[in-house]
Design goal:
Radius of gyration of chain A: 20 Å
Largest interface: A-B, 78 and 78 residues
Number of strands of chain A: 12
Strand content of chain A: 25-35%
Strand order of the largest sheet of chain A: 7-9-6-10-8-11-12
Helix content of chain A: 25-40%
Oligomer: homodimer
Structural class of chain A: alpha+beta
């Protein structure tokens, strides 16, 4: 029995029988049973030396994050994640603690949202660990929330606080799955996305897809606490990225209600109105009475 | 507009509207519509320097193969592939011809089987190209064919010829999707898998999952043509791997009929009976009247 055979046996032991998964790890493909005709699907790949370093993150951290970034994408559509597939590249000679830690983190995040790991592929990697996760989910019965539906006059809102994610949140964030569903059920979400590249970049994606512009009120952006450095807190909030909070558009009367009701307060998540959707294209940043055009920042890779 | 924005626009231009895909590339997740409650899912990752080298394969070759290895996994379940998600890592400074060639190969293989590319993720890679493909498919109305159903007395059969794949077939093989479906419709397939690691390794997976053993008739193995070297043609057939043919078990009377009818002859694919399923565990290789135990060969990574 080779090391790989043992690895398969180990992974099978970690993925217990699930009535939703008639065929799990071990065959050429997995077979799952769906309750919905609609299926959400997303993929994200994390690479060592680009997205993470084992100087700063443990294998468990990396595994958890690799799962959570995908769960965040399903949240951004107001969907429910169901299944995950893993593809992992490992440098030859990696200690067993690396794949086991990765899997522990992947499974911890999956279990938290009742996501079944249904299959995977492990490979040698010439240099560095690579983790690619695909998550499948079902849309909300009310339908999905796209990036492209924001209407002129809508309020722009965010969950939580932005900026300084690299201090630790980027490894330990909570995908806003429950939050997105609750918002979708209580009000009219015209457009939504998760903030992965930073508000200063992502707001261009939501408005660009919607064919509208936006004005952002700098003073209204909820900013996380962080140490003083050569960049302002506002710059951190706009361009650090990896907040994994929700950015959404909703009619102003729904926004008013959300600000008063704060329906996510019981799970410790604030809601802030940071601006409004405009007919004029582009994004402007308002400081008091002054407006300056915002230049897109952050990086874009997901398509 | 950054390079990444242009890349997304380019990819969108390559993935035309498809009625099965209400939301394709460009949102946080894709949304697809399914006709079946059952869903097949598989993932495979190819890494430069491990699975391929650009000295031997073009970006188009690599893209085609990355898609086809996954299509072959869906074929192995007798399913029909429908959708694909891509995750790609590219070294900074890669010429545009690399991602464009990869995508051309991925799309060529997908289009051939009417598979829609519904989303993806492109990243920097610290060193070397990484391509991970997830394929989703639907099971045959008759059900799926697993690795685990082979019965004592069944014949073991293969499509096509084995060995010497590295001479070129490993980059240009045809996933046996149509072949698997046709076999599933015309006879009782008790177990099936695709040959990726080589018959000498893969036969242990099929028999192991089925809780049976096998005897393989060395003289009955259909071997591809190849040059003389220090290994026998039989060794090539058993352990080269990457044949991407089907190995299946079927009752002896169905095997007889398949050998006479050769129902895949019109698409140029032969069917050969290479042995039989035995109660005795393990795999024995028969040369004339002599039997020797076969030791597992090849490598195993898919789970």
């Amino acid at each position: 029995m080779s090391g790989e055979f043992r690895q398969i046996a180990w992974i099978r032991g970690q993925t217990p029988a699930d009535p939703r998964v008639p065929i799990g790890p071990g065959d050429d493909a997995a077979l799952v049973e769906l309750q919905s005709r609609g299926l959400l699907a997303t993929v994200d790949m994390l690479l060592e030396g680009v997205h993470f370093s084992f100087d700063e993150a443990t294998p468990v951290d990396v595994g958890r994050k690799a799962m959570n970034v995908n769960l965040s994408d399903i949240a951004a559509m107001a969907g429910t994640p169901l299944f995950a597939l893993l593809a992992v590249g490992l440098p030859p000679g990696s200690p067993t603690s690396v794949p086991e830690g990765l899997f522990e983190g992947l499974k911890e995040a999956a279990d938290r949202f009742n996501v079944a790991i249904i299959g995977g592929d492990t490979n040698s990697s010439r240099s560095g660990v690579v983790v690619s996760v695909t998550v499948l989910g079902e849309p909300h019965p009310k339908g999905v929330v796209k990036r492209s539906g924001a209407k002129v006059g809508d309020a722009l809102m965010v969950t939580g606080k932005l900026g300084y994610s690299r201090l630790g949140k980027h490894l330990s964030f909570t995908p806003r799955i429950a939050e997105a569903r609750r918002l979708h059920e209580c009000c009219r979400l015209t457009a939504m996305m998760d903030l992965s590249d930073g508000l200063g970049g992502d707001v261009f994606h939501l408005t660009g897809e919607s064919g509208v512009g936006a004005v952002i009120h700098a003073d209204a952006i909820p900013i996380a606490d962080g140490p003083h450095d050569d960049r302002s807190p506002l710059q951190h909030a706009l361009s650090d990225g990896e907040d994994f909070e929700l950015l959404f558009a909703t009619p102003p009367e729904d926004a008013e209600r959300l600000l008063i009701d704060q329906p996510l307060a019981d799970i410790g998540v604030s809601l802030s109105r940071i601006g409004a959707v405009t007919r004029e294209l582009g994004v402007r940043l308002r400081h008091g009475d002054a407006e300056t055009p915002l230049e897109p920042s952050g990086f874009v890779h997901h398509w």
